[in-house]
Amino acid sequence: MTESLRWIKSSYSENGGQCIEWAPEHASATGEFLVRDSKVPNGPHLALSRQGFAGLVEFAKSH
């Protein structure tokens, strides 16, 4: 299922290659926030709740 999703890169993707992608339409439709490593698109992904995703974003902003 994740192959057909539209993945969006982090706005911080110009930081030397360490970036993530997420699937916003999937999040809107299901409430499940999928996150993956942009360098490994066919690798594993995380499935986060809205609160978990918000926490990840806050953590990334502060580091």
Question: What gap, in angstroms, lies between the N and C termini?
Answer: 32 Å
Q: Determine the number of helices (DSSP H or I, runs of at least 4 residues).
A: 2
What are the segments in which pLDDT stays under 50 over at least 5 consecutive residues? none
Sequence of secondary-structure elements = EEHEEH
Strand order of the largest sheet: 1-2-3-4
Form type: globular
Give the radius of gyration.
11 Å
State the share of residues found in helices, binned by percent.
Answer: 25-40%
Q: What fraction of the residues are assigned to beta strands by DSSP? A: 15-25%
Structural class: alpha+beta
**Beta strands, count:** 4
Mean pLDDT: 87
State the major sheet. Answer: 4 strands, antiparallel
Give a verbal description of the structure.
The protein is an alpha+beta fold and 63 residues long. The chain is 32% helix and 22% strand. It contains two helices and four strands, in the order E-E-H-E-E-H. It has helices at 24-30, 50-62, and strands spanning 8-9, 20-22, 33-37, 45-48. A hairpin with a 7-residue loop joins strand 3 (33-37) and strand 4 (45-48).
